[in-house]
Amino acid sequence: MHDVADPDKVQRSTVKSVQDYIDERPMWPDGTHLPSAPMTSMQWRIWALAAAGKFFEGFVVFMTGVALPLISHEFGINAAQNGFISAASLMGILVGAVGLGGMSDYFGRKRMFIVEMIIFCAFLVLLIFCTNFISLVVCLFGLGVALGCDYPTAHMIISESIPSTSRGKLVLAAFGFQALGALGGTAVGFLVLSIEPTLDAWRWMYGTAIIPALLVTIGRFYITESPNWLHVRGAVDRAELAAKRLLVRVPQYPTNISLARGGEFEAGGHGDKQSFFALFAKRNLRATILASVPWFLQDLGTYGIGIFTPTILAAAFGSKPDHVRSVSDLILNDILAAKGAALITTLLIVGIVFAVMLADKVGRIWLQVIGFIGCAAGLLLASFSTGFEGTTKTAVIFAGFMLFNFMTNLGPNAQTYLLAGEVFPTAIRGTGAGFAAAVGKIGAVATAFLFPILLTGIGTAPLLYILVATSILGAVITWLFRIETNGVSLDEIGR
């Protein structure tokens, strides 16, 4: 007697997910598939608008570094108030990453993609008209909220709309525009200072970003919502329409999109509307640890090596006057700082370029592990500088600085961002990626407050040894809790 196949099982096995349709490759008449699925114009539009947001993030953050000395002088801001200014931006990023980033799981990727840019533009305009310390802190907090929301949202709007085989390089390429924006912001700050060497120059700096940012905001209204998100929310008809709009191409394929409905879809375990605490449920805890703990440890090292930055920049571009005696001295210092920022950003770009090229070939986990080990080597090399004097000391610090910056951008700086937006199920992807970004920024805050105290209390070399240990710990945790997402469908990662 022959077994008869269960029709329901056959139907379930042939049903495709949104990602299956996105990953579908065209076939030649002889039955040969193309090696990858070509990107559609809508997919490229989504990618470009997300990359533009990353560009503005780097543009404004690095420009703020050039503008703040002028603002501080104009408003008479003291050292304690400068601490509040730094804290305002970081606190805004924390709130934006966890709060607004998580809202994309409830209100949609597209809606929050637009909202974050509206918030960014609004506070950018208000910043130009600031007249005192309080208004400055409020505006920087608002900008931080927008930037924090962008961490998870920009990643998801790309990764849920593109083929699995190119997800790593495209997400990281967009992330790399943050470094390009930083270089652009530094260049604009330098140019404005050269043309308009007055205290009011900082207002012109921020003003250059307003019209381009508004154009990007308008462009975001004309993209499709993530069909993956619509599907997990049970809006199957809307998901099919969004997928069709996303995949318009000539000649058209896939020719028909039909997604699973009801119990057929819920069997995958992704359709539940889950709360923040789902991140710590047994099925998601591994992903939560992998996404957040290495990011925290990476930020400790990244901000920690900043203790050497003044020494490096002074050697490269000349020392600043010890005492600012006039506006001319202030602007000279600012120009030197802009040149130094350009040097740092160039190192960041080199590492990101290698990360883009290797993420889909070597894999995220290996790059993160190797990157953490390389960071430890760079920090260890920098610690040897305490045994030297003069130019040798500076050369050793500079070598350690270069190695660290290259390896962190090849590895943990790029890969923690990439993994955080991939390892969670679609229903909580925004919340998970936002939580990971916020935990990373807690590491930045801890560094800002604790490291000056530790530097005075235990000295440079022991502090660097601590950072070496945290980098090695980052490699170990990455390996122990590894979830390799290279080339894997988001549907499978979620399971």
Automatic annotation (TrEMBL):
<feature type="transmembrane region" description="Helical">
    <location>
        <begin position="340"/>
        <end position="359"/>
    </location>
</feature>
<feature type="transmembrane region" description="Helical">
    <location>
        <begin position="300"/>
        <end position="319"/>
    </location>
</feature>
<keyword id="KW-1133">Transmembrane helix</keyword>
<keyword id="KW-0812">Transmembrane</keyword>
<dbReference type="InterPro" id="IPR036259">
    <property type="entry name" value="MFS_trans_sf"/>
</dbReference>
<feature type="transmembrane region" description="Helical">
    <location>
        <begin position="83"/>
        <end position="101"/>
    </location>
</feature>
<dbReference type="InterPro" id="IPR020846">
    <property type="entry name" value="MFS_dom"/>
</dbReference>
<dbReference type="Pfam" id="PF00083">
    <property type="entry name" value="Sugar_tr"/>
</dbReference>
<keyword id="KW-0472">Membrane</keyword>
<keyword id="KW-0813">Transport</keyword>
<feature type="domain" description="Major facilitator superfamily (MFS) profile">
    <location>
        <begin position="46"/>
        <end position="486"/>
    </location>
</feature>
<feature type="transmembrane region" description="Helical">
    <location>
        <begin position="113"/>
        <end position="146"/>
    </location>
</feature>
<feature type="transmembrane region" description="Helical">
    <location>
        <begin position="170"/>
        <end position="192"/>
    </location>
</feature>
<feature type="transmembrane region" description="Helical">
    <location>
        <begin position="432"/>
        <end position="455"/>
    </location>
</feature>
<feature type="transmembrane region" description="Helical">
    <location>
        <begin position="365"/>
        <end position="382"/>
    </location>
</feature>
<feature type="transmembrane region" description="Helical">
    <location>
        <begin position="394"/>
        <end position="412"/>
    </location>
</feature>
<feature type="transmembrane region" description="Helical">
    <location>
        <begin position="46"/>
        <end position="71"/>
    </location>
</feature>
<feature type="transmembrane region" description="Helical">
    <location>
        <begin position="462"/>
        <end position="481"/>
    </location>
</feature>
<feature type="transmembrane region" description="Helical">
    <location>
        <begin position="204"/>
        <end position="223"/>
    </location>
</feature>
<comment type="similarity">
    <text>Belongs to the major facilitator superfamily. Sugar transporter (TC 2.A.1.1) family.</text>
</comment>
<protein>
    <submittedName>
        <fullName>MFS transporter</fullName>
    </submittedName>
</protein>
<dbReference type="InterPro" id="IPR005828">
    <property type="entry name" value="MFS_sugar_transport-like"/>
</dbReference>
